[in-house]
Amino acid sequence: MRHKFKGAIMAAIMFCMSYGVTHAEPMKLVYDGTAHTYDLPPISLSINNTPVQTTIMPPIQLGERVLVPTREVFEPMGLAVEWRASENKVYVYDQTSLLVLEVNGAEAFVNGEMKPLDMPPKIINEKLMIPIRFISEQLGFKVNWQGDIRSISIEKPLPTPTEELPDPDENTVSEPQPMPDFENSLSHVVYQYETSTLILDKPAGLSAGNILVTDLYRDRKLIIDLQGNYSQFFNGGSLTGRQGKIKNAAIDNTNGTKLVIDTFTVSAVNLYEQDNKIHIQFVKPSEKYEKIVVLDAGHGGEDSGTVGGGIKEKDINLVFTTDIYNLFINDPNIKVYMTRETDFKPSLADRVALANEVGADLFICMHNNSINKPEINGTETFYFASSVQGQYFAKLVQAGIVQNLNMTDRKAKADTGYYVLKNTKMPAALIEVGFLSSEIDRQKLTQPDFSPRLADIIYNATLTYFENYQSLN
Length: 473
Ligand SMILES: [Zn+2]
Known about the structure:
By secondary structure, this protein is of the alpha+beta class. Helix content is 23%, strand content 35%. The termini are far apart.
Protein backbone atom coordinates (compact mmCIF):
# COMPACT_ATOMS: atom_id res chain seq x y z
CA MET A 1 0.00 0.00 0.00
CA ARG A 2 2.69 2.36 1.02
CA HIS A 3 4.69 1.54 -2.10
CA LYS A 4 1.74 2.07 -4.36
CA PHE A 5 1.18 5.46 -2.81
CA LYS A 6 4.79 6.39 -3.35
CA GLY A 7 4.47 5.36 -6.98
CA ALA A 8 1.50 7.61 -7.43
CA ILE A 9 3.41 10.55 -6.02
CA MET A 10 6.28 9.82 -8.36
CA ALA A 11 3.91 9.70 -11.29
CA ALA A 12 2.41 13.00 -10.23
CA ILE A 13 5.84 14.57 -9.97
CA MET A 14 6.82 13.23 -13.38
CA PHE A 15 3.56 14.56 -14.77
CA CYS A 16 4.20 17.97 -13.28
CA MET A 17 7.73 17.99 -14.60
CA SER A 18 6.67 17.27 -18.11
CA TYR A 19 4.18 20.10 -17.91
CA GLY A 20 6.48 22.33 -16.02
CA VAL A 21 8.47 23.27 -19.09
CA THR A 22 9.49 26.76 -18.27
CA HIS A 23 8.64 29.54 -20.62
CA ALA A 24 11.75 30.69 -22.33
CA GLU A 25 12.79 34.29 -22.29
CA PRO A 26 10.54 36.02 -24.83
CA MET A 27 12.32 36.24 -28.17
CA LYS A 28 12.01 39.00 -30.65
CA LEU A 29 11.31 37.54 -34.08
CA VAL A 30 11.35 39.63 -37.21
CA TYR A 31 9.48 38.21 -40.15
CA ASP A 32 7.13 39.44 -42.86
CA GLY A 33 8.58 42.87 -42.28
CA THR A 34 7.40 43.14 -38.67
CA ALA A 35 8.83 42.42 -35.23
CA HIS A 36 6.89 39.91 -33.15
CA THR A 37 7.29 38.84 -29.55
CA TYR A 38 7.56 35.07 -29.29
CA ASP A 39 7.16 33.49 -25.87
CA LEU A 40 6.02 29.95 -26.54
CA PRO A 41 7.88 27.23 -24.64
CA PRO A 42 10.81 25.68 -26.48
CA ILE A 43 10.30 22.75 -28.79
CA SER A 44 12.60 19.76 -28.66
CA LEU A 45 13.55 18.04 -31.87
CA SER A 46 14.83 14.59 -32.58
CA ILE A 47 15.77 12.85 -35.78
CA ASN A 48 15.76 9.07 -35.82
CA ASN A 49 15.56 9.15 -32.02
CA THR A 50 18.62 11.34 -31.66
CA PRO A 51 18.02 14.75 -30.09
CA VAL A 52 19.07 17.59 -32.33
CA GLN A 53 20.03 21.03 -31.05
CA THR A 54 19.82 23.61 -33.75
CA THR A 55 22.22 26.47 -33.23
CA ILE A 56 21.26 29.26 -35.60
CA MET A 57 17.60 29.28 -34.56
CA PRO A 58 15.42 27.06 -32.36
CA PRO A 59 12.32 25.47 -33.87
CA ILE A 60 9.62 28.12 -33.96
CA GLN A 61 5.89 27.51 -33.77
CA LEU A 62 3.72 29.76 -35.88
CA GLY A 63 0.05 28.94 -35.62
CA GLU A 64 -0.23 25.18 -35.86
CA ARG A 65 3.05 24.70 -37.67
CA VAL A 66 6.65 24.36 -36.65
CA LEU A 67 9.40 25.97 -38.69
CA VAL A 68 13.01 24.83 -38.41
CA PRO A 69 16.32 26.05 -39.78
CA THR A 70 16.64 24.37 -43.13
CA ARG A 71 20.20 23.19 -43.39
CA GLU A 72 20.69 22.16 -39.81
CA VAL A 73 17.73 19.83 -39.89
CA PHE A 74 17.70 18.45 -43.41
CA GLU A 75 21.35 18.09 -44.29
CA PRO A 76 21.98 15.54 -41.53
CA MET A 77 19.13 13.55 -43.06
CA GLY A 78 21.09 13.17 -46.25
CA LEU A 79 19.39 15.91 -48.21
CA ALA A 80 21.02 18.68 -50.14
CA VAL A 81 19.75 22.12 -49.28
CA GLU A 82 20.37 24.99 -51.62
CA TRP A 83 19.22 28.54 -51.07
CA ARG A 84 18.90 30.57 -54.24
CA ALA A 85 18.65 34.18 -53.21
CA SER A 86 17.96 35.43 -56.71
CA GLU A 87 14.86 33.25 -56.90
CA ASN A 88 13.91 33.64 -53.25
CA LYS A 89 13.59 29.86 -53.18
CA VAL A 90 15.05 26.94 -51.33
CA TYR A 91 15.79 23.67 -53.12
CA VAL A 92 15.73 20.51 -51.02
CA TYR A 93 16.64 17.32 -52.79
CA ASP A 94 18.20 13.91 -52.74
CA GLN A 95 18.63 11.20 -55.37
CA THR A 96 14.91 10.77 -55.89
CA SER A 97 13.10 13.88 -54.70
CA LEU A 98 13.17 17.55 -55.42
CA LEU A 99 11.23 20.12 -53.45
CA VAL A 100 11.31 23.79 -54.27
CA LEU A 101 9.74 26.20 -51.83
CA GLU A 102 9.44 29.92 -52.19
CA VAL A 103 9.66 32.22 -49.21
CA ASN A 104 6.07 33.13 -48.32
CA GLY A 105 4.88 31.16 -51.36
CA ALA A 106 1.47 29.51 -51.26
CA GLU A 107 2.57 26.44 -53.18
CA ALA A 108 5.56 24.14 -53.26
CA PHE A 109 7.04 22.29 -56.20
CA VAL A 110 7.20 18.62 -55.23
CA ASN A 111 8.68 16.25 -57.79
CA GLY A 112 7.09 18.05 -60.69
CA GLU A 113 3.81 18.88 -59.03
CA MET A 114 2.61 22.04 -57.32
CA LYS A 115 1.17 21.40 -53.88
CA PRO A 116 -0.54 23.89 -51.59
CA LEU A 117 1.35 24.96 -48.48
CA ASP A 118 -0.54 25.95 -45.35
CA MET A 119 2.65 27.41 -43.89
CA PRO A 120 5.24 28.74 -46.30
CA PRO A 121 8.96 29.02 -45.59
CA LYS A 122 9.78 32.29 -43.88
CA ILE A 123 12.80 34.41 -43.30
CA ILE A 124 12.85 34.82 -39.53
CA ASN A 125 15.59 36.99 -38.06
CA GLU A 126 17.30 36.72 -41.42
CA LYS A 127 17.38 32.91 -41.22
CA LEU A 128 15.53 30.70 -43.63
CA MET A 129 13.00 28.59 -41.74
CA ILE A 130 10.92 25.89 -43.39
CA PRO A 131 7.85 23.95 -42.30
CA ILE A 132 9.17 20.68 -40.93
CA ARG A 133 6.05 18.58 -41.31
CA PHE A 134 5.35 19.41 -44.92
CA ILE A 135 8.90 18.77 -46.10
CA SER A 136 9.30 15.62 -44.05
CA GLU A 137 6.05 14.11 -45.21
CA GLN A 138 6.72 14.91 -48.86
CA LEU A 139 10.04 13.11 -48.50
CA GLY A 140 8.34 10.12 -46.95
CA PHE A 141 9.57 10.71 -43.41
CA LYS A 142 7.35 10.12 -40.42
CA VAL A 143 6.61 13.11 -38.25
CA ASN A 144 5.42 12.79 -34.69
CA TRP A 145 4.38 15.84 -32.69
CA GLN A 146 3.70 15.49 -29.00
CA GLY A 147 1.98 18.67 -28.00
CA ASP A 148 2.06 17.95 -24.25
CA ILE A 149 5.82 17.84 -24.11
CA ARG A 150 6.35 20.07 -27.16
CA SER A 151 8.47 17.53 -28.90
CA ILE A 152 8.76 16.82 -32.57
CA SER A 153 10.47 13.72 -33.88
CA ILE A 154 11.21 12.70 -37.43
CA GLU A 155 11.91 9.22 -38.57
CA LYS A 156 13.55 8.50 -41.84
CA PRO A 157 12.51 5.02 -42.93
CA LEU A 158 15.26 2.58 -43.78
CA PRO A 159 15.53 1.91 -47.49
CA THR A 160 13.48 -1.11 -48.39
CA PRO A 161 15.12 -3.91 -50.38
CA THR A 162 14.35 -3.44 -54.05
CA GLU A 163 13.00 -6.96 -54.58
CA GLU A 164 10.25 -6.30 -52.08
CA LEU A 165 6.96 -5.26 -53.63
CA PRO A 166 5.43 -2.17 -52.11
CA ASP A 167 2.82 -2.98 -49.50
CA PRO A 168 -0.50 -1.71 -50.85
CA ASP A 169 -1.72 -0.99 -47.31
CA GLU A 170 1.20 1.24 -46.59
CA ASN A 171 0.36 4.07 -48.91
CA THR A 172 2.67 6.68 -47.55
CA VAL A 173 2.34 10.32 -48.41
CA SER A 174 5.06 10.38 -51.02
CA GLU A 175 4.68 8.36 -54.15
CA PRO A 176 7.62 6.25 -55.26
CA GLN A 177 9.77 8.25 -57.63
CA PRO A 178 11.25 6.82 -60.81
CA MET A 179 15.01 6.69 -60.67
CA PRO A 180 16.76 9.38 -62.72
CA ASP A 181 17.25 8.16 -66.20
CA PHE A 182 21.00 8.41 -66.71
CA GLU A 183 24.26 6.56 -66.32
CA ASN A 184 27.42 8.32 -65.24
CA SER A 185 30.96 6.99 -65.04
CA LEU A 186 32.78 10.32 -65.44
CA SER A 187 35.73 10.52 -63.11
CA HIS A 188 35.38 13.16 -60.38
CA VAL A 189 32.09 14.37 -61.83
CA VAL A 190 28.70 13.86 -60.21
CA TYR A 191 25.51 14.48 -62.16
CA GLN A 192 22.81 15.97 -60.02
CA TYR A 193 19.94 15.09 -62.29
CA GLU A 194 17.19 16.98 -60.48
CA THR A 195 18.94 20.29 -60.95
CA SER A 196 20.69 19.37 -64.22
CA THR A 197 24.03 20.13 -62.63
CA LEU A 198 27.43 18.57 -63.14
CA ILE A 199 29.43 18.85 -59.94
CA LEU A 200 33.17 18.61 -60.47
CA ASP A 201 35.75 17.90 -57.83
CA LYS A 202 38.41 20.55 -57.98
CA PRO A 203 41.94 19.56 -58.88
CA ALA A 204 44.64 22.02 -57.79
CA GLY A 205 44.69 25.03 -60.09
CA LEU A 206 41.16 24.81 -61.40
CA SER A 207 38.67 27.55 -60.64
CA ALA A 208 35.28 28.40 -62.08
CA GLY A 209 36.59 31.80 -63.16
CA ASN A 210 39.04 30.19 -65.60
CA ILE A 211 36.55 27.95 -67.32
CA LEU A 212 35.57 28.90 -70.84
CA VAL A 213 32.19 27.82 -72.18
CA THR A 214 31.64 27.61 -75.91
CA ASP A 215 28.00 27.30 -76.84
CA LEU A 216 27.47 25.50 -80.14
CA TYR A 217 23.76 26.00 -79.77
CA ARG A 218 22.69 24.96 -83.23
CA ASP A 219 24.32 21.59 -82.54
CA ARG A 220 22.95 21.50 -78.98
CA LYS A 221 26.52 21.13 -77.86
CA LEU A 222 28.55 22.91 -75.20
CA ILE A 223 32.30 22.77 -74.80
CA ILE A 224 33.40 23.39 -71.24
CA ASP A 225 37.09 24.19 -71.54
CA LEU A 226 38.85 23.89 -68.18
CA GLN A 227 41.79 25.76 -69.74
CA GLY A 228 44.50 23.50 -68.43
CA ASN A 229 45.66 19.92 -68.52
CA TYR A 230 43.76 17.98 -65.86
CA SER A 231 43.99 14.63 -67.63
CA GLN A 232 45.34 12.88 -64.51
CA PHE A 233 42.29 13.96 -62.57
CA PHE A 234 39.46 13.87 -65.12
CA ASN A 235 40.71 10.75 -66.77
CA GLY A 236 37.70 9.24 -68.43
CA GLY A 237 34.22 7.88 -68.28
CA SER A 238 31.05 9.11 -69.87
CA LEU A 239 27.57 10.19 -69.04
CA THR A 240 24.49 9.17 -70.95
CA GLY A 241 21.10 10.62 -70.23
CA ARG A 242 17.84 9.37 -71.65
CA GLN A 243 15.85 12.41 -70.59
CA GLY A 244 16.40 15.66 -68.74
CA LYS A 245 18.93 18.17 -70.00
CA ILE A 246 22.10 16.22 -70.74
CA LYS A 247 22.11 13.66 -73.52
CA ASN A 248 25.83 12.91 -73.43
CA ALA A 249 28.89 14.14 -71.62
CA ALA A 250 32.46 13.09 -72.21
CA ILE A 251 35.92 14.23 -71.24
CA ASP A 252 38.25 15.25 -74.03
CA ASN A 253 41.91 15.43 -73.00
CA THR A 254 43.42 15.78 -76.46
CA ASN A 255 44.49 19.41 -76.08
CA GLY A 256 43.89 20.49 -72.50
CA THR A 257 40.91 19.18 -70.61
CA LYS A 258 37.42 19.81 -71.91
CA LEU A 259 33.99 18.50 -71.11
CA VAL A 260 31.98 17.98 -74.25
CA ILE A 261 28.27 18.11 -73.52
CA ASP A 262 25.42 17.24 -75.84
CA THR A 263 22.06 18.48 -74.64
CA PHE A 264 18.57 17.50 -75.73
CA THR A 265 17.59 21.12 -76.24
CA VAL A 266 19.52 24.37 -76.45
CA SER A 267 20.78 25.06 -72.94
CA ALA A 268 22.46 27.88 -71.10
CA VAL A 269 25.05 27.30 -68.39
CA ASN A 270 25.31 28.62 -64.87
CA LEU A 271 28.85 28.17 -63.66
CA TYR A 272 29.81 28.67 -60.03
CA GLU A 273 31.82 27.29 -57.15
CA GLN A 274 30.22 25.94 -54.03
CA ASP A 275 31.69 23.92 -51.18
CA ASN A 276 34.99 23.72 -53.04
CA LYS A 277 33.38 22.13 -56.08
CA ILE A 278 32.63 23.46 -59.52
CA HIS A 279 28.96 23.47 -60.41
CA ILE A 280 27.93 23.52 -64.05
CA GLN A 281 24.20 23.82 -64.26
CA PHE A 282 22.27 23.47 -67.50
CA VAL A 283 19.13 25.54 -67.77
CA LYS A 284 16.69 26.65 -70.39
CA PRO A 285 18.04 29.92 -71.83
CA SER A 286 14.88 31.77 -70.82
CA GLU A 287 15.59 30.76 -67.21
CA LYS A 288 18.94 32.51 -67.39
CA TYR A 289 18.37 35.49 -69.65
CA GLU A 290 15.87 38.26 -69.13
CA LYS A 291 15.43 38.92 -72.84
CA ILE A 292 16.23 36.74 -75.83
CA VAL A 293 16.22 37.63 -79.52
CA VAL A 294 16.61 35.12 -82.32
CA LEU A 295 17.82 36.46 -85.66
CA ASP A 296 17.08 34.57 -88.82
CA ALA A 297 18.86 35.29 -92.09
CA GLY A 298 16.58 33.95 -94.81
CA HIS A 299 17.67 31.23 -97.24
CA GLY A 300 21.32 30.05 -97.45
CA GLY A 301 23.41 27.28 -98.94
CA GLU A 302 21.89 25.84 -102.10
CA ASP A 303 18.92 28.17 -101.65
CA SER A 304 19.98 31.60 -102.91
CA GLY A 305 16.56 33.15 -102.49
CA THR A 306 15.91 35.75 -105.12
CA VAL A 307 18.71 37.07 -107.32
CA GLY A 308 18.85 40.54 -108.87
CA GLY A 309 21.63 42.54 -110.46
CA GLY A 310 24.14 39.93 -109.40
CA ILE A 311 23.08 40.09 -105.77
CA LYS A 312 21.96 36.87 -104.11
CA GLU A 313 19.34 37.36 -101.47
CA LYS A 314 20.93 34.79 -99.12
CA ASP A 315 24.14 36.85 -99.04
CA ILE A 316 22.61 40.25 -98.44
CA ASN A 317 20.25 38.75 -95.84
CA LEU A 318 23.30 37.45 -93.99
CA VAL A 319 25.13 40.79 -94.21
CA PHE A 320 22.13 42.59 -92.72
CA THR A 321 21.57 39.98 -90.04
CA THR A 322 25.23 39.91 -89.02
CA ASP A 323 25.27 43.66 -88.51
CA ILE A 324 22.18 43.39 -86.32
CA TYR A 325 23.77 40.52 -84.43
CA ASN A 326 26.87 42.59 -83.71
CA LEU A 327 24.76 45.20 -81.93
CA PHE A 328 22.92 42.65 -79.82
CA ILE A 329 26.02 40.68 -78.90
CA ASN A 330 27.37 43.81 -77.21
CA ASP A 331 24.20 44.37 -75.22
CA PRO A 332 24.53 42.66 -71.85
CA ASN A 333 20.77 42.79 -71.28
CA ILE A 334 19.75 40.83 -74.33
CA LYS A 335 20.86 37.36 -75.31
CA VAL A 336 20.98 36.80 -79.05
CA TYR A 337 21.01 33.65 -81.16
CA MET A 338 21.32 33.26 -84.92
CA THR A 339 19.75 30.52 -86.99
CA ARG A 340 22.79 30.73 -89.26
CA GLU A 341 26.02 32.69 -89.26
CA THR A 342 27.39 31.32 -92.50
CA ASP A 343 26.23 30.20 -95.90
CA PHE A 344 24.16 27.12 -95.16
CA LYS A 345 20.48 26.42 -95.13
CA PRO A 346 18.74 25.56 -91.88
CA SER A 347 15.30 24.15 -92.56
CA LEU A 348 12.35 26.30 -91.66
CA ALA A 349 11.63 23.82 -88.87
CA ASP A 350 15.20 24.25 -87.54
CA ARG A 351 14.79 28.01 -87.45
CA VAL A 352 11.52 27.78 -85.58
CA ALA A 353 12.83 25.08 -83.23
CA LEU A 354 15.76 27.23 -82.16
CA ALA A 355 13.50 30.16 -81.35
CA ASN A 356 10.99 28.02 -79.49
CA GLU A 357 13.59 26.01 -77.57
CA VAL A 358 15.45 28.98 -76.20
CA GLY A 359 12.15 30.62 -75.26
CA ALA A 360 12.87 33.71 -77.37
CA ASP A 361 11.03 36.95 -76.68
CA LEU A 362 11.31 38.11 -80.26
CA PHE A 363 12.07 36.48 -83.61
CA ILE A 364 13.41 38.67 -86.41
CA CYS A 365 13.61 37.26 -89.90
CA MET A 366 15.54 39.08 -92.63
CA HIS A 367 14.63 38.77 -96.31
CA ASN A 368 14.68 40.69 -99.56
CA ASN A 369 12.06 40.79 -102.23
CA SER A 370 11.64 40.36 -105.96
CA ILE A 371 8.93 40.89 -108.56
CA ASN A 372 8.85 40.89 -112.32
CA LYS A 373 7.97 44.60 -112.42
CA PRO A 374 11.23 46.52 -112.05
CA GLU A 375 9.42 49.76 -111.16
CA ILE A 376 8.18 48.29 -107.87
CA ASN A 377 10.38 48.97 -104.88
CA GLY A 378 10.27 49.50 -101.13
CA THR A 379 10.15 47.85 -97.73
CA GLU A 380 7.42 45.69 -96.23
CA THR A 381 7.33 44.00 -92.86
CA PHE A 382 5.13 41.04 -92.01
CA TYR A 383 3.75 39.92 -88.67
CA PHE A 384 1.50 37.05 -87.74
CA ALA A 385 -2.07 38.30 -88.04
CA SER A 386 -3.20 37.54 -84.50
CA SER A 387 -0.10 38.89 -82.78
CA VAL A 388 -0.69 42.35 -81.35
CA GLN A 389 2.88 42.47 -80.13
CA GLY A 390 4.24 41.28 -83.46
CA GLN A 391 2.22 44.00 -85.16
CA TYR A 392 3.59 46.62 -82.82
CA PHE A 393 7.16 45.53 -83.45
CA ALA A 394 6.66 45.27 -87.22
CA LYS A 395 5.26 48.79 -87.31
CA LEU A 396 8.20 50.13 -85.32
CA VAL A 397 10.64 48.50 -87.75
CA GLN A 398 8.72 49.55 -90.84
CA ALA A 399 8.48 53.18 -89.71
CA GLY A 400 12.16 53.27 -88.79
CA ILE A 401 13.30 51.94 -92.14
CA VAL A 402 11.01 54.13 -94.22
CA GLN A 403 11.88 57.30 -92.32
CA ASN A 404 15.60 56.80 -92.00
CA LEU A 405 16.60 54.89 -95.10
CA ASN A 406 14.39 56.61 -97.63
CA MET A 407 12.67 53.37 -98.64
CA THR A 408 9.21 53.34 -100.21
CA ASP A 409 6.62 52.44 -97.57
CA ARG A 410 4.87 49.21 -98.50
CA LYS A 411 3.55 49.00 -94.92
CA ALA A 412 3.59 46.53 -92.07
CA LYS A 413 1.24 43.74 -93.06
CA ALA A 414 -0.63 40.96 -91.33
CA ASP A 415 0.03 37.50 -92.68
CA THR A 416 -0.88 33.94 -91.83
CA GLY A 417 1.09 32.07 -94.47
CA TYR A 418 4.75 32.41 -93.54
CA TYR A 419 5.88 29.24 -91.80
CA VAL A 420 8.24 30.99 -89.41
CA LEU A 421 5.65 33.55 -88.34
CA LYS A 422 3.02 30.91 -87.88
CA ASN A 423 5.10 28.41 -85.93
CA THR A 424 7.22 30.55 -83.66
CA LYS A 425 5.62 30.92 -80.26
CA MET A 426 6.78 34.48 -79.68
CA PRO A 427 6.10 37.78 -81.43
CA ALA A 428 7.93 37.81 -84.74
CA ALA A 429 8.53 39.98 -87.77
CA LEU A 430 9.68 39.11 -91.25
CA ILE A 431 11.30 42.08 -92.95
CA GLU A 432 11.48 42.28 -96.71
CA VAL A 433 13.99 45.09 -96.77
CA GLY A 434 13.99 45.90 -100.46
CA PHE A 435 13.43 44.54 -103.98
CA LEU A 436 16.47 43.02 -105.63
CA SER A 437 14.46 43.27 -108.85
CA SER A 438 14.51 47.08 -108.51
CA GLU A 439 17.55 49.04 -109.60
CA ILE A 440 16.55 51.85 -107.21
CA ASP A 441 16.49 49.51 -104.22
CA ARG A 442 19.68 47.72 -105.21
CA GLN A 443 21.42 51.11 -105.28
CA LYS A 444 20.22 51.86 -101.77
CA LEU A 445 20.82 48.43 -100.28
CA THR A 446 24.42 48.31 -101.44
CA GLN A 447 25.49 51.68 -100.04
CA PRO A 448 28.21 50.95 -97.45
CA ASP A 449 26.29 52.62 -94.64
CA PHE A 450 22.93 51.02 -95.44
CA SER A 451 23.42 47.79 -93.49
CA PRO A 452 24.84 49.42 -90.32
CA ARG A 453 22.01 51.97 -90.33
CA LEU A 454 19.42 49.26 -90.89
CA ALA A 455 20.93 47.33 -87.99
CA ASP A 456 20.64 50.40 -85.75
CA ILE A 457 16.99 50.84 -86.69
CA ILE A 458 16.12 47.23 -85.92
CA TYR A 459 18.13 47.17 -82.72
CA ASN A 460 16.49 50.38 -81.49
CA ALA A 461 13.05 49.14 -82.49
CA THR A 462 13.73 46.06 -80.38
CA LEU A 463 14.70 48.15 -77.36
CA THR A 464 11.58 50.27 -77.75
CA TYR A 465 9.50 47.15 -78.14
CA PHE A 466 10.93 45.58 -74.97
CA GLU A 467 10.31 48.79 -73.05
CA ASN A 468 6.70 49.03 -74.12
CA TYR A 469 5.33 45.66 -75.06
CA GLN A 470 4.05 44.71 -71.63
CA SER A 471 1.51 47.51 -71.73
CA LEU A 472 0.02 45.98 -74.88
CA ASN A 473 -1.39 42.92 -73.17
ZN1 LIG B 1 13.43 35.53 -99.02
